[in-house]
Recover the amino acids of this structure.
């Protein structure tokens, strides 16, 4: 565990899976005018990694996810997935990424099934009807497939958004504060589905300021402050009840 | 069907389904067309001006102003729940997204243009002349160019503080060629002139639509990418 703005370390999965998938971010910088939202971030993540990035509001966590997912173009640096450099206009790159945020990216006037079917068509999925059915089943919404997304509760919408994000079986899953506003049951469903992603063949990156939920599934942890990764560590070593103290100290020192 | 066309179709299907369920834009555009027709009906002295002589200009102006009411809200539903972010993060090429939204808008505006023709036929007793199909074709070509520019600039103006004010300021100057050639062709067709006489205007309307669609498809990604 070291203070660092570059996060790397051994994979938790087989060598074969690691060769198949690696996410690399090198010296990532993102400026918004005079504001440097992400400052020299480096990442080396292999298949099977679940990384949680903690940080206070305004630390640049969402911007970092935007850079990793290709939604934002870096001011400097680059991102590689499986050795291929990120190009936001490259459609094959985006087909490998699934994104879930506290906003569902759903159409209120489409039913749950129609929402998934629409996104499935955008991803040009062949076995679409099977995937839609399985996706709804996975998040416990199969009986609500004909309901309009706008009539679902926030927790149900978030579960539907999760089904949307995973519909195309992405290699890289990006989660931006996914637990925001969820009731305990919806949070448990989300946690179960996220746990099922730990199959050794994909990378999951979650950003959150919720320490408890962020630590539950993570095998890597980083703390981002003022755009930099100020600290990194292994999730398993952090479940000793001391992480909250450490988090506050890192944030305080990095903010000084 | 190729992947690209399937993605375009998905956008068209989604936009038209949303419109069928909300009817937000179609009702606004249709209501404007009818009200404009009624107001125009009372706005000039029929003993001095023949409706047939000015109908073409009024039809196109109604289409432009009414159309902008709907086209300007192209991305309104997309902004709710950040739905459009999901579309942009999918592997669908940005130009396919633009073409899908433009085609959906075209279907809506073309329906409104037929309504406008009907309104003016009713209130002004305007005859469509011996070639009503060519009149409709002229409106269709003009509508295609209009929605292409309108869709592009609607994306530009949606996230701005003065979006609804900004849109007409951006779009209207670019619509001048469409209005010039459209009014010219329609005036002659309503006057019963032969189709050969308006062939040049129709070609210009077609060229305008082609350039607008191509430019919109090429520029759209620069508008929507952060």
């Amino acid at each position: 565990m070291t203070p660092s703005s570059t996060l790397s370390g051994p994979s938790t999965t087989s060598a074969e899976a690691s060769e198949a998938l690696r996410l690399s971010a090198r010296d990532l910088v993102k400026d918004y005018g005079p504001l440097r939202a992400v400052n020299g971030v480096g990442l080396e993540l292999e298949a099977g990694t679940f990384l949680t990035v903690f940080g206070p509001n305004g630390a640049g966590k969402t911007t970092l996810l935007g850079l990793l997912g290709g939604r934002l173009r870096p001011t400097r640096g680059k991102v590689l997935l499986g050795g291929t450099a990120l190009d936001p206009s490259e459609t094959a790159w985006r087909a490998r990424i699934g994104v879930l945020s506290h906003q569902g990216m759903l159409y209120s006037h489409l039913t749950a099934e129609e929402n998934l079917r629409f996104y499935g068509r955008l991803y040009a999925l062949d076995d679409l009807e099977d995937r839609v059915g399985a996706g709804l089943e996975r998040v416990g919404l199969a009986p609500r497939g004909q309901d309009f997304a706008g009539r679902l509760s926030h927790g149900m919408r978030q579960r539907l958004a999760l089904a949307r994000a995973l519909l195309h079986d992405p290699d890289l899953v990006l989660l931006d504060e996914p637990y925001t506003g969820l009731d305990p049951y919806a949070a448990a469903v989300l946690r179960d589905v996220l746990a099922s992603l730990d199959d050794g063949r994909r990378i999951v990156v979650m950003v959150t300021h919720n320490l408890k939920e962020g630590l539950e599934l993570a095998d890597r942890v980083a703390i981002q402050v003022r755009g930099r990764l100020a600290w990194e560590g292994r999730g398993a070593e952090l479940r000793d009840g001391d992480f909250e103290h450490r988090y506050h100290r890192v944030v305080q020192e990095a903010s000084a | 069907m190729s992947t690209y066309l399937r993605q375009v179709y998905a956008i068209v299907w989604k936009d038209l389904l949303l419109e069928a369920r909300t009817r937000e834009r179609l009702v606004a555009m249709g209501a404007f067309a009818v009200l404009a027709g009624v107001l125009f009906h009372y706005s000039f002295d029929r003993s001095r001006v023949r409706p047939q002589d000015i109908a073409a200009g009024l039809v196109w102006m109604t289409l432009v102003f009414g159309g902008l009411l709907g086209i300007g809200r192209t991305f309104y539903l997309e902004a709710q729940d950040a739905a459009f972010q999901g579309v942009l993060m999918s592997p669908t090429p940005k130009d396919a997204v633009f073409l899908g939204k433009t085609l959906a808008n075209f279907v809506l505006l073309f329906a409104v243009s037929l309504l406008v023709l009907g309104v003016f036929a009713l209130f002004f007793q305007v005859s469509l002349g011996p070639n009503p199909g060519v009149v409709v074709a002229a409106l269709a070509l003009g509508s295609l160019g209009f929605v292409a520019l309108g869709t592009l600039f609607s994306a530009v103006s949606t996230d701005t503080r003065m979006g609804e004010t900004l849109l007409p300021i951006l779009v209207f100057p670019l619509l001048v060629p469409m209005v010039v050639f459209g009014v010219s062709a329609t005036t002659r067709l309503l006057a019963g002139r032969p189709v050969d006489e308006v062939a040049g205007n129709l070609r210009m309307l077609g060229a305008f639509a082609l350039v607008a669609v191509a430019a919109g498809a090429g520029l759209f990604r620069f508008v929507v990418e952060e």
